[in-house]
Specification:
Blueprint (H helix, E strand, L loop, with lengths): L4 H12 L3 H20 L4 E3 L3 E8 L7 E8 L5 H14 L6
Helix pairs in contact: 1-2
Amino acid sequence: MMIKKKEIYAQVAETTGLKKRDVRLVTDALLAYLHEQLKAGEDIQCPPLGKISGVTQKPGTEKEKRVYRLSLTKEKPMADTVEAVEAVEATAPDTSD
């Protein structure tokens, strides 16, 4: 099974109570940033997902390629993430005017 971005948007919107439009903007920006960093050769430490590290195979040859490995971290309860989002929302300025 493959998870598609639309499913990520829906899950995050449901979990956080944010609008799908807002979730989409943030998620797309995050994924673009992660792509840029991996392309630049950076490793990414991203709890609760884990560590994404890359290695170049067959450097200097026609078959050179970059391969990435994800080392999963121990599972963190989703409730902690929801509580963190609620805490940020509680301290955010009211822009409903």
